[in-house]
Structures are given as structure tokens and as C-alpha cells.
Amino acid sequence: MEYRLGRSQLKDDVVYGPRAPGIPHPIQRADTPIMGLDDSPSADSLFDGRYELGAQIGSGGMSRVHAARDTRTGREIALKILDVPDHQLRWAIERFVRGARIATQVRHTNVVSILDHGASPSGAVYIALERLSGRDLGELLAERRLSWRWTRHMMAEICAGMNAIHEAGFVHCDLKPNNCFFVETSARVEILDFGLATVAARRPPSALLLGTPAYMAPERIRGEALDRRADVYAAGVMLYEMLTGERPFDGEQPTVVFDQHLHTPPPTIDVDATRFPTPPAVNEVIIRALAKRRDDRFADMDALWTALERLEPSTIATGRTRGISQPQSVSLAEAPTLRIHDQA
Q: Which fold has domain 134-334?
């Protein structure tokens, strides 16, 4: 299966909150003209004079993804092209380009590689990235819960990639299953989409509250400056979700979810009720990762992974006995008795 995004999450992922007095709405139409999208790049010509466009292989809330070939290198890539209404264009370009620039500063096995970014002569803004084979974790979780051994492996991969992002000085701010891509041939997970990323210790670069409510740390909801512990919180949500198939905090309205993040104690897993054997001590990890006060959480992803590594070992050898700075991917071929398709 080629690199692809799930269905558009725009309705669920973009939450418009109050903006500070005097700050213009970032998606209002600009007074000065800005170049628009090329609505239908031709497969018969080179995109931006360099890329041969193939079929569209995915779409998201603000972009579409095409299979492509870089004619300069001969490499098969994925080309992510900004695709938003005109009235959102200026705001979307700023977010799109900022995310690309941040991503290029992080080089790691568990972070998607950004190869190029720019704008075509017609004004189409794009990002060229490595073409991956597999699907995102959100699609996997929509079909099944994961066993403890696979949850542990996925968390090792995610923690490794997120640790590299944090060491580069950034907070991802949008860590969730749909932004974690499972590469099926190597059982590797790569972190995607830096559109909401920010420099650590700064407030998010928007007067709006943007992101997916189910994964937002309390300090994000309060509009405070963020550090790596905001991403630790999101990882705790994902840990719970992988094992149970449900999110710890959920509701029909974002305000309901926000209130739960701020005030409701995190739920625990009834390990005896799960289909797959799960170490009871995983609840201690979840509760600490989802602590309301950031000072009560794990200090970073390395500490979170260390806590998980100490639990009952997985039958998948992750190769992380000395931390997560240099992860080693695990091939399914090396563990033929294991399948990601564990059914709940």
C-alpha cells in the first residue's frame, strides 16, 4: 500500500477558540493578493519543473498528496500540495511552510524525511517527502486494539522519534495516531505533520486553539507556553487508546473533552478484561503520563519509554536496552509468528 493519508479530519481537528484582543483572525482574506493554487497540475508536464506527478494517493484537511518522481534523482517520492479555500490561503501557507522548515531540522529514523519544499511558478505550495509504504496508526486503531507486545513496540518507535524532535528544540503539538505512520515492511513508525509544531517554551504560534481535542494537554487548552511534556501527555492518550480501542477523554463537543482534560482523573485499564495479557503496572504509566500538572508527568519521552521498558518484556525484541537515541527497526520477517492484525 502506498503512502496515503486517512480521510479529511478537518472538522474534528480544527477547533476555533477565542483570540486575543487586537489580533486579526489569521484566516481572514488578506488585503494584498497572494498567488493561488494550480487546481489541476498536469501529469504531462513537470510540476515546478522537476517532479513528475502521478495519481493522487491521499488527502487531508489542508492538502492533497500525489505519488511523484523526482526527475533529478530518479527517486519515487510523495508530493504534498496545499489545497485550501482562498480565504484560508495566507494562514495555511504560513502553517504549511513553517511545519516543513521545522521538519527539515529533524533527521531521525522515526521522523518522516522532508526532501524539499517550495512553490511552483503557478503558486502551488508543496512539500516533497519520502514515499512510505503502509498506513497510519489511526487506521489500524479504527480496526482493532493492539496487543501489549505491539503497543510496547509502537510506543518505543514513537518515543524515539518524538525524543529526536524534542532534542532539536521543538514541541510537535499534534501527536496523535493519524500522524504516526506504520511502515509495514520494517515495522517502523514515522512521525508526520509538523503544521502545529512550535519552539519549546513558546506559546503556540496562533491565537486560535488548533489541534485534535482528544490529545490536547491541559496547558494547551489554557494557552500556556508549551514544552515536551505536552507531547508526553498526547503519548499517554495514545497508549491508553492502543490497548483499549477507546480514548480516555472523549465527547461529542470539544468543550466537553476540554473539561475532562482539565478536571477528570484519567481512567485506568481493566487488564483482566482485555483479550491480550497486559501488565497491570501499565496503569501507573498511563496515570503519570496523563497527570493534569505537567510537573507530575514524565519529564520527557525517554523517561516514558524507560517506564514502559521496565514492564513485562514484549516478545518483539525492540533493541532499545540502552535508551531511545538510536532506535533499531524490527522486521516482521524476523518475528514470523507475530502479526499486526491482532483482533480485539
A: Transferase(Phosphotransferase); domain 1 (1.10.510)
Please give the single-letter amino acid code of residue 21: P
Active site residues: 174
The pLDDT-based confidence of 318 (bands split at 50, 70, 90) is very low
Q: What is the pLDDT of residues 257-284, one digit of tens each?
A: 999 999 999 999 988 776 778 999 999 9
**Residues in Cβ contact with 149 at an 8 Å cutoff, skipping those fewer than 6 apart:** 276, 314, 315, 316, 338
Amino acid at 50: R
Domains 33-130 and 134-334 share a fold: no
pTM (predicted TM-score): 0.78
Q: For residue 263, what pLDDT is reported? A: 96
**Mean pLDDT computed over 88-97:** 82
Side-chain-side CA neighbours of 311 within 13 Å: the count stands at 22
Q: Which three cell numbers stand for residue 44?
A: 504531462
- Rounded to an integer, what distance in angstroms lies between the CA atom of residue 162 and that of residue 146? 21
Going by their DSSP bridges, the two strands 76-82 and 125-130 should be labelled as antiparallel
Distance (Å, rounded) from C-alpha 344 to C-alpha 341? 9
Residue ranges of domains in the chain: 33-130, 134-334
Do β-strands 51-59 and 63-70 pair in parallel, antiparallel, or remain unpaired? antiparallel
- CA count, 13 A, side-chain hemisphere, 291: 14
Q: Which fold has domain 33-130?
A: Phosphorylase Kinase; domain 1 (3.30.200)
- The crossing angle, in degrees rounded to 10, of helices 148-167 and 301-309 is 160
* Owner of C-alpha cell 489569521: 26
Average pLDDT score, the chain: 78
